[in-house]
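Q&A log
Question type: sequence-to-structure
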Amino acid sequence: MDRCQIEAFFYPVRIVWNSKVIYRSSFGSAVKLKRHLYHPIPIWRAYKMTSMNEQLKAAAQQFQANSPLEAQIKFGQMIEELQKSGIASGLTVGQKAKDFKLSNALGQDIVLYDELAKGPVVLIFYRGGWCPFCNIQLKAYQQLLPEIQAQGAQLIAISPQKPDHSLSFQEKEGLEFQVLSDPHGIVTAKYNLLFDVPQGAKEVMESFGLDLAEYNHTSKWILPVPATFMIDENATIRSAYVNPSFMQRQSPEEIIQALRLL
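Response status: OK
Response body:
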């Protein structure tokens, strides 16, 4: 394959609510991109765009234009393996959400079932503050927070990063919802989202200067598959979005649509 050519694979994803598919992506085919057609796009400029999907697309184009071909292949292999194996496919609609107690950015314990006693919860699993796609997602969800609260719900986000990183990230981005730390992946595993970073992807991350184990203050290289769950007051999962492709996330509009159906 010509090094000036890369294959960007966009994987299909489904959103399920009450056992019915309410959203299906139109992706699924390979699109050829030529590096010389894309000028580097500063990631922070992408944030100025109004649509979260547009921001994610701009970030993906930057990654595809500027990252070594080998890195893209290894990340693509990781995504494909997750899809084929189903080892981190997430809990499904109708299942009971697993209760947990995790520390927030200030070191305070947050218990899921205590929060559900106040109303529905939009529960997000993300990779960490080092991930530009996660940053785009959480900033978009922050803008959505008043609408979520207007539906009587709240937003809770979980990542493997240690509380110090969560606090820095929360303050930097002005996030007004709970950002919790699950450094050993115990809660993430209960939601069937945890996976070990494969050796190829680990080598790429290290080449980018990221030591994931050190960043998360743990001995393991683990990550969650990005996911969003709508959980009602009875702790029943009413909507589930799970996507191994870390460049795609559930749109704010889809979240509000699912909340209105609770």
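Response note: The CA atoms of residues 35 and 65 lie 5 Å apart.
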